[in-house]
Design brief:
This protein is mainly beta and about 300 residues long. The protein is built from one helix and 14 strands; from the N terminus they run E-E-E-E-E-E-E-E-E-E-E-E-E-E-H. The strands form five sheets. A four-stranded antiparallel beta sheet has the order 2-13-4-5, with no helix packed on it. The chain has a four-stranded antiparallel beta sheet with strand order 3-6-7-8, with no helix packed on it.
Length: about 300
């Protein structure tokens, strides 16, 4: 096998020292990232789609999983498919069929990396769904909301959803966000958990906020605010609908009320985003186990 010298221990003819100039490639829909011939290391922001909100004093949707990772190895000159997760879809009033957000994926052959879609906010019945961040519970479930960090990552990609409150004031729990858990319902619906910021694009942008839990017709109280980073606010009686999560921020959607006179479904989750930044540097010596695995898979350059 050929080897380059004086390169920090990089082995293999195509495993060049990365000479990335900080070029940023942003994906708001599925596509392909092609590494330049001089780039073998990238930083990747992965934000998955946010979860939808529930109804009948429903919980807010969880924010999409948030991961901002430097030093991802990629073979220079190759292409990595990119999947941008869509937001979860709302459902009819009193239906359990509203959905979680979809995973976002950077599918480098050497280092496939993903983040998990946000959990669905609960409609009256079971707890909020698990996900990148967990969905909030409807009013009738006062235990912990849906669990976050579905991918089991360290650091975690998100947080748990909040619990509902069944009286004397009724409200849905907030969806979890990338940096904070969803709020427990109280005088108003639970607030959505705050998202996390990233500067990968050159600006400081916050992503993956949780959706606010719904207020109730019983007390005419407000829905919870959406979490910073695209979370949608919960509905309020009278007249205020649940707010969708923000597109390409991975925001969870707000939960909706129990007012049959309104269009009673929770909001739709916001779609995710994937941003790739070319990095300079050397990823160092490869573990022999990695070299063996890559060779078996036919992706080690010789």
């Amino acid at each position: 096998m050929n080897r380059q010298s004086a390169n920090g221990g990089v082995v293999g003819i195509n495993n060049v020292i990365s000479q990335g100039d900080g070029t940023v490639t942003t994906f708001t829909a599925n596509g392909n990232y092609t590494a330049p011939a001089t780039v073998s290391q990238v930083r990747v922001l992965l934000v998955a789609g946010g979860g939808s909100g529930g109804s009948v004093i429903g919980g807010g949707g969880g924010g999409g999983g948030f991961r901002d990772i430097s030093g991802i190895k990629i073979q220079a000159g190759t292409t990595a498919p990119v999947t941008v997760g869509g937001g979860g879809a709302s459902a009819a009033y009193n239906s359990q069929s509203n959905t979680a957000g979809i995973d976002s994926v950077f599918n480098s052959a050497w280092n496939p990396t993903s983040s998990s879609g946000g959990g669905r906010g609960a409609t009256v019945g079971p707890a909020g769904g698990a996900g990148g961040s967990g969905g909030g519970n409807a009013y009738n479930v006062t235990s912990a909301g849906g669990s976050g960090n579905a991918g089991g990552y360290s650091p975690p990609e998100g947080n748990d959803g909040g619990s509902g409150q069944a009286g004397p004031v009724y409200g849905g729990g907030g969806g979890g966000g990338a940096s904070a858990a969803g709020g427990t319902a109280g005088p108003v619906g639970g607030v959505g958990g705050a998202g996390s910021p990233s500067t990968i694009s050159g600006s400081n942008v916050t992503y993956a906020g949780g959706g606010g839990g719904s207020g109730s017709i019983n007390n005419s109280q407000a829905g919870g605010a959406g979490g910073a980073g695209g979370g949608g606010a919960g509905a309020q009686h009278p007249g205020t609908r649940a707010v969708n999560g923000t597109a390409n921020r991975g925001g969870g959607a707000g939960g909706d009320t129990n007012d049959a006179g309104q269009a009673n479904e929770g909001g739709d989750g916001g779609s995710g985003i994937v941003i790739v930044k070319d990095e300079a540097g050397c990823s160092g010596v490869y573990r022999m186990q990695d070299v063996y695995n890559y060779e078996i898979q036919g992706i080690w350059p010789t």
